[in-house]
Amino acid sequence: MRHGKKVNHLGRTDSHRKAMMANMASSLILHKRITTTLAKAKALRGYVEPLLTKSKNDTTHSRRTVFSYLQDKETVNILFREVAEKIANRPGGYTRIIKLENRLGDNAEMALIELVDYNTVYTKDGAAVAKKSTRRRGGSGKGGAKSAAPKAEAAVEEAVVVEEPKAEAAPAVEAAPAADETPEAPAANEENAEKGE
Length: 197
Hints:
Radius of gyration: 31 Å
Strand content: 5-15%
Structural class: mainly alpha
Largest sheet: 3 strands, antiparallel
CATH architecture of the domain at 14-129: Alpha-Beta Complex
Distance between the termini: 107 Å
Shape: globular
Number of helices: 6
Low-confidence stretches: none
C-alpha cells in the first residue's frame, strides 16, 4: 500500500526524475505546450506551477531559485520576461492538461500540457477573457483585507465593462406613423357621423 505517498516516482531514480522534470519544464516554457504521458504531465504541473508563481516577482533571489530548478539561463530569461507578463493577473492554474488518444506502441495514456494564457482558441481576439474573481475573506486583522477588497472589486468592474448596443433611430421613425394613424381614425369616424346626420 502507498498511503500518504504523494510523489509519483515515475519508475526513475531521484536524480533522473529531477533532471527529467527540469527538462520538461524548460520545454514547456520554451514551446508553450508539449505532449507527454498523462502521469508525467500531472507530475510536471506540480513542478512547474510554483516556478511560474515565483516568476511574477522579478528579483535576483527569485531568478536564482528558479534557475536552481531549471538549470537553463535562456529558459529563465524567457520565463521572467515573456511568460511572467502574460500570467501576471492570473492567481494560479497556469497550465492545462488535455487528454489525448493512447499511444500505439504500449497503449500509454497520452496528454497535452500547455500554458493557459498562450492558447488562442479559448481567448477572444488574442486577449484573455476577463473572468470575475470570487471574493475571499482575508485572514489578517487591522483592515488590510477590508481596504484591498473594494479596490479589487473596482478593478474587476472596470475589466468587465460591456458596452450595450445603442438603440437606432429606425424604431422611433416607425413609432411616429403609428401615432399619426390613431388620430386619423377618430377623424374618419367624425366625418362618417356628419354624413349620417
